Amino acid sequence: MSLFRKKNIEQMIASVEGSALKKALGPLDLTFLGIGAIIGTGIFVLTGTGAAQAGPALMISFAIAAVACALAGLAYAEFASTIPVAGSIYTYSYATLGELAAWIIGWDLMLEYGLATSAVSVGWSGYLQSLLAGFGLNLPVALTAAPGTVNGAVTFFNLPAFLVMMVITTLLSVGVRESTRVNNAMVAIKVAVVLVVIAVGAFHVQPGNWQPFMTHGWNGVFGAAAVMFFAFIGFDSVSSAAEEVKNAKRDLPIGIIASLAVCAVLYVAVAAVVTGIVPSAQFSGVSHPVSYALQVAGQNWVAGLIDLGAVLGMLTVILVMSYGQTRIIFAMSRDGLLPRKLSTVHPRFSTPFLTTWLVGIFFGFVGALVPLDVLAELINIGTLAAFSMVSIAVLIMRRTHPALPRAFRCPGVPYVPIFAVAACVFLMVNLQWITWVAFLAWLAIGMVVYFGYSRRRSLLAQPSR
Fold this sequence. Notes:
With 465 residues, this protein is mostly helical. The protein is built from 17 helices and no strands. It is globular, with a radius of gyration of 21 Å.
């Protein structure tokens, strides 16, 4: 039964009062945090991949992915307002499903967030190189991409991807308030860039490019939706900030729902514009599809603006996802499931300093050495599993803690959580089989770590601690 031991929700909520993390965030910070995590590689890079796969029906793919995220987002909002504790779905699972489930989802999230930062660093590198090329500057080819990713060229290491990870890690290690200010400024810039793309591109749309609408049928639409799901990853990282929010019960649901709604509208609009300007088949192999579409439209000044906006904007995705990952590890370490050193808070900066640097360096090397398409699918399956888990956990908490005060209640229970699970499982089925193999291998490693180390060292296994 020790595999299903649970943390006491009331004690968890009470323990937040003595948290060493600084409470510095408000609702606008959280909304910008969510937008900062969502708008990035998904719209600036993977739009081309999705257009090649689904054609103009990429708009539907984005809508399907958004609905799946929204269903899970409502469950996240209920948990975040009820249990405002660092750790996101890991913490929620620990209180409702038990320790083993919490470990599995925490282990899963460690990989999800880490690979997300790596994937975005690769997309950021591509846009930076496009921007520099506009000024006649080019890096040595060997240092521009992961090994074997550029046809006809020898590449060893993606240096820009690694360096940007180091810059973000430095920023995160010195404080959440400072990181948030930088994030808010860059989010404002990239949202403005996306609005410019929609406003200018709309005048160059040729409706004929939307025919045929589903170039590869529904299989292409669903396959693209499974990949485009990556574009919405990030709103869940808002809940990781729970212990650093001034009024968590009110502000966390606002941040989660508002950021997801804004980004869903922007994504569908951008998909409509770029597929209306360029025939979808032409996006195959294009690493900067949005700026490419504006170049085809003859709006080179906008294309250059997009490259600049992408370079600045994707920095916020790396920042927020790295932030979410370090808080997951912080929570697991504080519970004894990972080494205690990982939850040590820096006396001056009030951040998990060691954890921030360890994950920054490790996933910096991952981004420099692993291709983007491999990273994107691995992230998706982990996130879909997490979203399924949080939806199940809401149903369980409604039965086990019906009287627990909830500042926000997920509507339509049990139907909304059930639909969320069904949507996530459906998208998981549409991922490639090699993605499943890699995912199950990571979970197998996690089981070895749990039974070999974490189970005996858990604080719930040692009440005196």
